[in-house]
Amino acid sequence: MAETTIPILPCQTLPPVLDFYRALGFEVTFEQRSPNPYAVVERGGIELQFFGMKRHEPEQSYSTCYVVTDDVDGLYAAFRAGLKAAYGKVPTRGLPRLGALRDMSYGVRQFLMSDPGGNCIRVGQPTSADQHHRPAPEETFARALHNAALFADSKDDPKGAARIIDRVLNLDDERPTPVQLLRLLALRADVAGRLGDAETVASALARAAAVRLTPEERESVRDDLDRLEELSERGM
Questions:
Q1: Whole-prediction pTM
Q2: Non-local CB neighbours of 175 within 8 Å, separated by 6+ positions
Q3: Which of 99, 134, 182, 187 qualifies as a FRET site for 225, CA 20 to 30 Å off?
């Protein structure tokens, strides 16, 4: 037996959603405008279907699905390039938006994106056979990074993530390593951008730019540096 699951996601109107997925490299393989708006987009082995609903509020949507891939870095790079070509910059706040690529604490490397319909598409690649959440680290700054990342992505609570980071960065008796500091500032800039807090984005970007890293350390935080570059380009 062979089965396939295809998510059917809502949107207010089809055109902006279809334009978004075209920018990502999807092909619109079916489109019905009346009597009921309906469309299908496909890219490789990914198929998503959409239906129009006039009373749908994208900003209040909870619709989501998960795409499992064996090349999350390749998809992320392609999506970034496509969105930059279509929108001039990679959108990082509001709708649509593309989230950061991260190694999560539950054995997955993933990113989140939200389309104009408010649908959150999680794209991930397993990095471990164990998909359970790991215990939070004991060390102060590693623990803060762990918890803030969960608040930012898994719980979609940027305010909660911001509180965790602000508290730990204001400690008087402990200091993070340069790598920890860079990662904390990258995440702080990211969640500030989602909250529309341009002042904090600018402050975090400036502090991150002043962090001195060795070439090996820079390679270890490549995802965070890429995210900082995206936020800087957006001019938040």
A1: 0.86
A2: none
A3: 134
Collapse the DSSP code of 201 into the 3-class scheme (helix H, G, I; strand E, B; otherwise coil) and give the result: helix
Closest by CA to 94, choosing from 112, 111, 118, 76, is: 118
**What distance in Å separates the CA atoms of residue 236 and residue 228, rounded to the nearest whole number?**
11
**C-alpha closest to that of 90 among 73, 121, 113:** 113
Phi, psi at 235, each rounded to 5° = 75, 25
DSSP assignment string, 22-84: HHTT-EEEEEE-SSS-EEEEEETTEEEEEEE-TT--GGG---EEEEE-S-HHHHHHHHHHHHH
DSSP 106: T
3-state helix, strand, coil in the chain (%, to 5): 45, 20, 35
Mean pLDDT across 208-222: 96
Residue pLDDT, tens place only, 59-88: 999 999 999 999 999 999 999 999 999 999
Report the candidate in 106, 104, 100 with the shortest Cα–Cα distance to residue 191.
Answer: 100
Contacting residues for 104 by C-beta, under 8 A, at least 6 apart: 110, 124, 149, 153, 154
| Cβ–Cβ < 8 Å for 67, 115 | no
**What's phi and psi for 198, nearest 5 deg?**
-65, -35
- pLDDT tens digit sequence for 108-156: 999 999 999 999 999 999 999 888 888 889 999 999 999 999 999 888 8
